[in-house]
Amino acid sequence: MPTPSTARRSPKHITSLAVALTVFLLPILAFAGTDDGDLFSRLLGRYGISAALAGAFLGGLMTAGTGCVYPMIGITVSVFGANKTTSRARSLVLSTAFVHGIAAFYVPLGLAAGLSGSLFGALAGNKYVLIVEATLMFIMAASMFGLFDIQLPASLQTRLSSMGGLGVRGAFVVGLVLGPIAAPCATAPLAGILSFIFRTKNALHGVGALYAYSLGLGLPFFLVGAFAMGLPKPGRWMNLVKSILAFVLLIVGLWYLRQLLPFLAQAPRALAPRVSLALAIVAAVIGIGFALKASLKIEKIGKITAFSLSAVAAVWWLGAESHVSSGACRPVVWQRDLAAAQQLARREHRPLLVDFGATWCRACEELAHRTLPTAAVACALQESNFVTVKLYENEQGEERFEGLQRQWNVRSLPAVIVLDAAGHEVARVNEFIEPAAMAAIVRRVRP
Question: SS3 of 87, please?
Answer without folding.
Answer: coil
